[in-house]
Amino acid sequence: MTDKQRALLDKAKKSLRFAEQNLLAGGPEFASSRAYYSMFYVAEAFLLSKGLTFKKHSAVHSAFGLHFGNTDQTLREFHHLMLTAQESRMVGDYLTDDIVRDVDAAAHIENARRFIELAEKMLGEAPN
Questions:
Q1: Domain containing residue 69
Q2: Which tens digits make up the pLDDT trace of 72-90?
Q3: What b/e sequence results for 37-64 when a residue is b if at least 16 CB atoms lie within 10 Å of its CB, and e otherwise?
Q4: Are 81 and 39 in contact (CB under 8 A)?
Q5: Is residue 89 part of a domain?
Q6: Residue 31: which CATH number?
Q7: Of 96, 105, 94, which is closest to residue 24 (Cα–Cα)?
Q8: CA distance 126 to 128
Q9: pTM of the entire predicted model
């Protein structure tokens, strides 16, 4: 694992902690946003293993699906889960009439946790 990948996974863990805190504080929309970003940082770490970096979320999503989702069933699942979390993030960040439910935010948090653990195994770092 490179220093940059490690930094991205550390950022993903920090984002996950804030997601958990936001959910406990009654902010599932903010929790979903942080859980999505946690998954996004993990996807960026995976892409770095192929020397790929992108500036746009859509490019990260597309490249992750192409380079990892097409070759590994588990990573295909996480690609889908990341896109689902992004939908909740968009609702929570930009809309006022739609509500992100606690149960959905909790699911995004758990999925982000699992994605981090998988990345640590696949990218060569033992979980803390």
A1: 3-122
A2: 888 999 999 999 999 999 8
A3: bbbbbbbbbbbbbeeeeeeeeeebbebb
A4: yes
A5: yes
A6: 1.20.120.330
A7: 105
A8: 7
A9: 0.91
